[in-house]
Design goal:
Order of helices and strands: HHHHHHH
Distance between the termini: 26 Å
Organism: Kitasatospora putterlickiae
Helix content: 55-70%
Protein name: Carboxymuconolactone decarboxylase family protein
InterPro entries: AhpD-like, AhpD_core, CMD-like
Number of strands: 0
Radius of gyration: 15 Å
Low-confidence stretches: none
Number of domains: 1
CATH class: Mainly Alpha
Largest sheet: none
Mean pLDDT: 90
Strand content: under 5%
Length: 157
Amino acid sequence: MDARIDFFTTPTGGRLVKGLMTLGRELKEMPLPATTQELVSLRVSQINGCAVCIDMHTKEAAAAGESALRLNLVAAWREADVYTDAERAALALAEEGTRIADGAGGVADEVWANAAEHYDTDQLAALVMLISFMNLANRANVITRQPAGDYVAGRFH
């Protein structure tokens, strides 16, 4: 499959992708555990069907030492006992923040309160921005049919 647009070869796309990559690097530096960041990024990408981001975040998580078992079970995290309570809270927030149209009121108060039990205000801000960023990246990649499979961990660092 060929991408509809190669963002890196167009002036507008290149400028905007450069800005997004800068934001992505900033998010990596936020006070949120790297494992949580990758699990959330992977789950949001699974929900949105973004193959290139699934490829990227699976490989980045594996390179950071995440186990194949935990990566393989992200889509069924509720039934898997391999995640911490904090990771479960982040994954629940990621799902509701991604599926906003499915819930009449957006993210439920209970989901937010659960996340707030595990993360401080700075971490919650980072988590919200990460979920939002991943949704943006997923949509740009899905709309333009970016191909997956050839990502190498560390490519954008």
